[in-house]
Amino acid sequence: MIRNTGAWCILILQEIGRMTLFGFQAYSRGLTYGFSLTKLIEQIYMIGVKTLPVILLISFFTGMVLGLQGYFTLAKFGSEGLLGSAIALSLIREMAPVLTAIMIVGQAGSSMASEIGIMRNSEQLDALNTMNIDPLVFLIAPKLIAAILVYPLLTGIFNVVGIWGGYLTGVELLGVDQGAFWFRVESATTANDIIGGFTKSLVFAFVTSLICCFQGYFIHRHKGFGATGVSRAATSSVVFSSVSILLADYIITSFML
Amino acid sequence: MDTPLLEFKSLVKKFGDKTILDGINLSIPEGKMTAVIGKSGTGKSVMLKHVARLIEPDSGDIYYKGTSFGSLKGKKKKKLKDKFSYMFQHNALFDSYTLFDNVALPLIETTSLNPKKIEKKVLAILEQLELAEFRNNFISQLSGGMQRRVALARALVTDPEVVLFDEPTTGLDPIRRNSVFDLISKYQRKLGFTSIIVSHDIPDAFYVSDFVAILEEGKIIFSGSPLELEQQTDPLIHKLLKSHDLLIDQLSGLKDPLDFKLEIQNKLDSNQESNASFILIRLMDFSEIVKSVGEIASQHIMKTLGNSIKDIFDHPSALSSKISRSQILTYISPSGHVEDLDRKLASLKERLDNNTIFCKDEIQYRTPNFSIFYQIIPVTEMSNIGDFSFKKEKLKPLLEMNCKTNP
Asked: What sign results for the dihedral spanned by CA atoms A76, A77, A82, A88?
C-alpha cells in the first residue's frame, strides 16, 4: 500500500517534471526561433473567437443567477444595496477566471489534445521532425502563447457580461436602485481584485494549455494509439485541467487574501 | 564497393523485451539506390527511422561520411538533418492543408526562398508527378495513389542529398507502383541523391536498386549487388526472392524446391530409401504454350497439373516440387505404394484426359495442343539430386490432347 502510494507519487512528480520541461522548451524555442504570426492568429481564433459565444452565454446566466441568489440572501439582512459589490467581487475575484478557464478547456483544450494526438498517431509530428521543422515551435508554441493572450481577454468579457446579467436581474427585475448598484460595483472593486483575477486567468492559461498540449503530444506514451488513445487524451486533458484550475485557484487565493 | 555514405555500426534497438535491431552492420554507397528488403515486421522501418533520427539507438551508431550521428548537437545536427528527406509509409501528410501547402511546407519553413520561387518550384514537381491540377484539393479529397505521389513530391522538393523511402509503393496498383519506382529511379539519376528504399515489393525494389541489403530477425543477412544476390543459395534469401513463384507452387500444393531438395537429401542420407522412385512429369513445349495463351494461363496450367499430381499421389511420404517452369518431380518412398505407380499414372492420365483441367472457361478457346510426358526414375539412377540432373531420361508419353482453338 505504502509502496504503491509512493510509486504513484513519484510517477505524478515525474509527469509534472516532464510537462514543465516540455512547456519550458516550447516557450523558449518559440520565443527564440520565432513562431509564425499567422499560426498565432489562427490559434487566437480557434481558442478565443470560437469560445466567445459560450463565454457570453455562460457569463450572462452566471451574472443573472448571482443577482437572483444575492438579492434574496441580502434581502434577509436588508442589504439589497450591496448586491452590486457582491456580484462584482464574486465575478472578478473567482467566478470569471475559473469559469472562463473551464469553458475554454471544454471547448478548445480537448480539441487541442485531439488535434495533436491525431498528428502524433498519423506520424505528422515525425514528418515535421524529418523536415527539420521543430513541432514545438511550429505547433505547440503558437497554441501556448495564444492561450496566454486569450484567457485574460475572455475573463474580462466574462466580468463585463456577468455584471450586466446581474444588473438585469437585480435592477430591472427585482427593483434594486440603479445608482446604488453601480456605486457599489465601483466602490467595492479595487485594482488588487482586478489584478488578482487576471493573474489567475494567466496562471490558468499557462497550466491548462500546457496540460492539453502535453496530453496530445505524448499520447503514444500514456494513452495508447488509435481513436481510443485520442479520446482518452481529450478526456484526461479536460479532467486534469479542470482539477488543476481549482487547485491553482485555491493556492493563488490563499496567497492573495 | 563505392565509398560508403552511411555506415551502421553494431546498431541495437529494443522495444521492451523485444529486440528489433540486433547489431546492424551495413554500409550504404553514395549516389546509389539501396534497397533494404525483408519480410513485414522485421524492423526495416525502425532501421530507416534511425537514419532520420526519429529513433535513437540503444547502442551502436550511424556514421555519415565518417561523422557519428550521436556526436552531433545543435546547429550541426540540424545542418545534417537538412541533407535528409523521408517519405513515410503512411504518407504523414497534413490533412488540414491543401496539396500545394503540403508540398510547399518544408520550403516555407526551412528556406529563405520568396513565395514566387516556392510556388515555381512546387508547381514544377507537381507537374512532373501529374498533380498540378489538384493543387487546391485537400488531402482527404485525393485517392490513395495520389496521396502517395504528394508524399513523394514533398520528399523531393527540398533537393535532399539522401532520400529515405519507407515502403513507397505500398497500396499502389502495379502500374502506379512501376511509375513510382521509375520516378524515384529517374530523379535519383537526375539529381544524384542517395536513396534508401525499404520495401517488401521484392522483385520491383530489386530491379531498380544498385545495392541490396536483406534484413531478417534484426540482422543483415546479405548486402551486395543484385547480381551477387541472385547467386545466393541461402534458403531464406531464395524464399524472399522467389516469393511470387513460391506462392503459385504453394497454391498447387507443391513444395518449395529447396525444401524438397533438403528433405529428399535427408531421406537418402539415412539409407532407408533405397527402393524409392522419382516420377518426372513434363509439360512439353512450355514456351510455345506461354506464347500462345500467355504467362498467367500457363501458370494456371502448371498449377492445375500440380494439383492433379498432388491428388493422385496423395500419401504423406510422397513429395512433389516444381523443379523448373514446366517440370514437376515427385518422390515416392517404398512405403508410398510404388507397385501402384502404373495404376496411379493411369489415373492421372484419365483425369487429364477428361479435358476439364486445361480446356475450361476462357482458356479453352485459345489453348494449343498439350503433350505431357513422364519418366519413372529409380532412386539408384538419380546421380545428383542436388542439381536435379538425371542420368537417363526416357520420357514416355502420358497424354497428348488437342483442345479447341479459337477460330
From this structure: negative
pTM for this prediction: 0.72
> Under DSSP, is residue B271 helix (H, G, I), strand (E, B) or coil?
coil
Q: pLDDT of chain A along its 257 residues, tens only? A: 888 899 999 988 998 999 999 999 998 888 887 778 888 999 999 999 999 999 999 999 999 999 999 999 998 888 888 899 999 999 999 999 999 999 999 999 999 999 999 999 989 999 999 998 999 999 999 999 999 999 999 999 999 999 999 999 999 999 889 999 999 999 999 999 999 999 999 999 999 999 999 999 998 776 667 788 889 899 999 999 999 999 999 999 998 87
Quick check: B256 pLDDT over 70? yes
CB B41 within 8 A of CB B95: no
Q: Is the ipTM of this complex over 0.90?
A: no
Burial annotation B38-61 (CB, 10 A radius, 16+ → b, else e): bbeebbbbbbbbbbbbbbebeebe
User: Is A24 contained in some domain?
Assistant: no
Enter the C-alpha cell of residue B223: 548486402
Nearest chain A Cα to B108, which residue?
A: A133
Alpha helices by DSSP H, B97-197: 99-110, 115-128, 144-156, 174-191
Helix axes of A191-217 and A110-121: crossing angle, nearest 10 degrees: 20
The dihedral over CA atoms of B120, B124, B129, B132, expressed in degrees to the nearest 10, equals: 50
How many whole angstroms separate alpha carbon B377 and alpha carbon B390? 9
Considering only CB atoms, which chain A residues are within 8 Å of B158? 131
**B254 with B306: CB under 8 angstroms?**
yes
Cβ within 8 Å, pair B92-A126? yes
Residue A14 lies in a domain: no
CB proximity B23 to A under 8 Å: no
Number of domains in chain A: 1
Domain ranges, residue A70:
45-256
Residue A7 and residue A42: Cα distance in Å, rounded? Answer: 41
Per the CB < 8 A criterion, the answer to whether B8 and B18 are in contact is no
Interface touch A123/B105, C-beta < 8 Å = no
Which residue in the set B53, B95, B105 is minimally distant from A131, CB to CB?
Answer: B105
Distance CA A115, CA A46 (A): 12
CB of A32 less than 8 A from some CB of B: no
- Average pLDDT on B35-47 reads 86
Round to whole Å and give the CA distance between B399 and B353.
7
Contact (CB<8Å) A130/B105:
no
pLDDT category at B246 given cuts 50, 70, 90 is low
pLDDT at B296: 62
Within-domain flag for A13: no
Q: Is residue A204 part of a domain?
A: yes
